[in-house]
Amino acid sequence: xxxxxxxxxxxxxxxxxxxxxxxxxxxxxxxxxxxxxxxxxxxxxxxxxxxxxxxxxxxxxxxxxxxxxxxxxxxxxxxxxxxxxxxxxxxxxxxxxxxxxxxxxxxxxxxxxxxxxxxxxxxxxxxxxxxxxxxxxxxxxxxxxxxxxxxxxxxxxxxxxxxxxxxxxxxxxxxxxxxxxxxxxxxxxxxxxxxxxxxxxxxxxxxxxxxxxxxxxxxxxxxxxxxxxxxxxxxxxxxxxxxxxxxxxxxxxxxxxxxxxxxxxxxxxxxxxxxxxxxxxxxxxxxxxxxxxxxxxxxxxxxxxxxxxxxxxxxxxxxxxxxxxxxxxxxxxxxxxxxxxxxxxxxxxxxxxxxxxxxxxxxxxxxxxxxxxxxxxxxxxxxxxxxxxxxxxxxxxxxxxxxxxxxxxxxxxxxxxxxxxxxxxxxxxxxxxxxxxxxxxxxxxxxxxxxxxxxxxxxxxxxxxxxxxxxxxxxxxxxxxxxxxxxxxxxxxxxxxxxxxxxxxxxxxxxxxxxxxxxxxxxxxxxxxxxxxxxxxxxxxxxxxxxxxxxxxxxxxxxxxxxxxxxxxxxxxxxxxxxxxxxxxxxxxxxxxxxxxxxxxxxxxxxxxxxxxxxxxxxxxxxxxxxxxxxxxxxxxxxxxxxxxxxxxxxxxxxxxxxxxxxxxxxxxxxxxxxxxxxxxxxxxxxxxxxxx
Length: 693
Known about the structure:
The protein is mainly α. It has helices at 3-14, 23-34, 40-52, 54-57, 64-87, 109-118, 126-145, 154-177, 183-195, 201-205, 209-222, 236-239, 255-264, 267-270, 272-285, 290-311, 323-326, 329-363, 373-386, 388-391, 400-414, 417-427, 439-452, 461-476, 485-500, 505-522, 529-543, 548-552, 556-571, 581-585, 598-608, 615-629, 635-650, 656-668, 671-676, 679-692, and strands at residues 241-243, 247-249. Strands 1-2 form a two-stranded antiparallel ribbon. Strand 1 and strand 2 (247-249) form a beta hairpin. Helix 7 packs parallel to helix 9 (183-195). The longest helix is centred in the middle third of the chain and has 35 residues, at 329-363. The chain starts with a helix and ends with a helix.
């Protein structure tokens, strides 16, 4: 069919909407016609009709048609560029000037683009013009990425970039006048999400970021084309049913799962990575810094709604470690993984935006002011707390941007003691003194404990004792529950952090006996050798001079040493312990660490604390430890202890005064012989020399 007749048929089809129409077929025809028309006026007419056609826009409520129309112009320009590259540019001849180059229906590329862009006129909304300009720009950018020799098109590309930025700014004004929500704003986000990488730095600076940021945030997090205010979780609970075997199932045929599948297939959700980076770029470039605080309020409300919806879901009542016991195979393998994929997408998008906020706070004097910075840091931490039921499944430090945002917010907040105290009290467990039954509450307790350990030097002693210690104690007593091992370890970290805080010396004195007893009960079944050694090393550093606790309780270091010594000689097992995570990680190295028994670990712990002992205790305990080394019967373990003894003396862990004492003992008082040969060998040599004399 000739191009003119095909154009007439297409224009008639675009004039009316019918339920039976095949929109993809119409748009495919439009792509073909765009690449074959030779009359510029017909190109302009077709473009204008595509932007106003009732068949495309009368009932358009999603981004489906805008995305298809964007693809029409992308495909058309790509077809023309490919045609030129393969047929009109032989390698032996330089490319002719743009105005002389015949393309497609006989028009030059420049004339074809001008004719198409002319169709984006006043008869269509300004945001629809972006579909034309964005499609052209993305097509040219994709061709350049594929290595097409189109150097001569770069001038045309720069003009399209400038036109797109101008159209975006005008469309943002129009969208704002219409309320800021709806298909117009969503389409702006869609086009920029695809075309932003094709814009040069100069054109990016010309964008009206103050108008763009609210549109992007609203589209991504609150619109029906984005995460829809997290309402998708609410419908899941209705479809979770009990099945034989006392298990629960979330069927793949349920309406709520179909909704999750539909959300994952949405154009903006499926490309949320680039969109989140665009939002972060917008945060870093807005002129009005107060827009960032408003945006943080919106993100905090989204995260709060997400947590609330999750709590009301039956699936939240199942601990992650027990899902295989209580969930049906279909839920485990099909439906639940897709839901977590969607939830992780919300986490990643939120974190990337918050990373942009942190970058802005660090370089913006207005946001870094004393009255603003702690408020922003508090909002960010509240948002991360509400998303912690997602991030806790990824493991600690598995997401570098999340770690950066989290630690930076903490660093900022710790410089404001009053704000820190208020924040920790606001997120403290409402059930202090007991372990909650709901897994989500335990997850929030884990966030509290992991966060609180960073604030112990800033908080007043009363908060450390009444809130932090009281929140940690129940989990220290629950050492036998392997499902709560992360919270148990976090509770230990909090206790050590509180005991190390100078202002909490009285708290340390009151809670030290309980904590030491908890350590001995937990090791070696729930605490690894590394964790146990670190804990006791911290305790000796806290109780030894010049710490505040040593002045009121000078006998504590000697008491702790005696407890360790008694455990080593009377209770400790001599059987090798199972390898911990560090040993497993180093198992394939050139020098894997040898297995150690409980007895050997306790001796290593005593060696670790030598640099912190007062000099009289140091002189007393070095000979005792030399004897303990030889109490270990396993030769390999004993060699590890000898190497550690020597390392403590010469590696610089001791200060100069203690180093002098150690050197004198090693060289002049028989220390070397006691460690290397053993006390009984030294005694035999002494007897032999005495008889010889």
